[in-house]
Amino acid sequence: VTVELPPLDPVIVTSTRLSIVALLAPAEEMEFAAVRDATGLSDSALSKQASSLEAAGYVAIRKGHIGKRPRTWLRLTPTGRTAFDAHVVALRAILARATGA
Amino acid sequence: MDERHTAQQAADALAEIDSRRRQAVQLVDPLPLWVVLAAAVLIFAINVQQDLPDWAGKTPIGYLLAFLPLGIVFVRMLRRRATMHPSIRRIGVWILVVGAAPFVALVIWLPGRLERQDIARPHMLAGVILGVVGGLTVLVTDRVRRRYLLNRLAAR
């Protein structure tokens, strides 16, 4: 009997988006620069990926200031969090089936 | 795409997630070196001032020295680059409480104990001991809690 595996999430299946979402998962909110530094992406690359994730409803982008300096914060939405959790479950299922666990 | 390749990709993705989680936990809950310094200086100052002679500037300067690191901690907290998600904020807090309990007992017991001994500056000695022990307690409990938090996140 072949057990159907849960599907991988198409939005975060790419490694760059997965890195961003995984980084945001333990955080309530994270500064754009912190995500950029942690992932090693350029400003423009992160901006593009963040916009894609925002368009998918996975990430919320908030702009504000600390003192006079403009800051941008990224936050995983409940939809994004649910999708990420489901994606992790799917990855584990694939691995478990391959290893016979 | 054959199944082994997919399994390898899944393993890589899970490793990547684990790695990012570790980074995130560092960012949302940065190593509290400033908290360690603030706690150590505060405890040291509270004890040491009892062994110093009275003079006009003792109280204000003492308060300034004792609370300046706490102020820096507060400002750094306001400027931190990431905040912890509410769903994990309470994970492992008991470790900090359990870790702090022996230290609190030491804070209560040690100064009085040293005062009864024939020591020239008992409060200064107590301040140094408590400052060092307090700082180490914060470092160790934070390390243990961070590891516990990562394990709990990985198990989810």
General description of the model:
The complex is a heterodimer of chains A (101) and B (156). Chain A has 101 residues and is of the alpha+beta class. In chain A, 52% of the residues lie in helices and 21% in strands. Chain A has helices at 15-24, 32-39, 43-55, 78-99; strands at 27-31, 59-66, 69-76. Chain B is mainly alpha-helical. Helices cover 79% and strands 2% of the residues of chain B. Chain B contains six helices and one strand; from the N terminus they run αααβααα. In chain B, helix 2 packs antiparallel against helix 3 (58-78), helix 2 (33-48) packs antiparallel against helix 6 (122-155) and helix 5 (93-115) packs antiparallel against helix 6. The longest helix of chain B has 34 residues, at 122-155. The model of chain B has no long low-confidence stretch (mean pLDDT 82). At the A-B interface, helix 1, strand 1, helix 2 and helix 4 of A face helix 1 and strand 1 of B. Strand 1 (27-31) of chain A pairs antiparallel with strand 1 (82-84) of chain B, so a sheet runs across the interface.
Summarize the structure.
The complex is a heterodimer of chains A (101) and B (156). Chain A is built from 4 helices and 3 strands, in the order H-E-H-H-E-E-H.
Which ranges of chain A are low-confidence, i.e. pLDDT below 50, for 5 or more consecutive residues?
Answer: none
Mean pLDDT of chain A: 91
Q: Low-confidence parts of chain B lasting 5 or more residues at pLDDT below 50?
A: none
- SS-derived structural category of chain A: alpha+beta
The pair of chains with the biggest contact is: A-B, 27 and 27 residues
User: Largest beta sheet of chain A: what is the strand line-up?
Assistant: 1-3-2
| DSSP strand content of chain A | 15-25%
Largest sheet of chain A: 3 strands, antiparallel
Any idea what the shape of chain A is? Answer: elongated
Class per helix and strand makeup of chain B: mainly alpha
Q: Count the DSSP helices of chain B.
A: 6
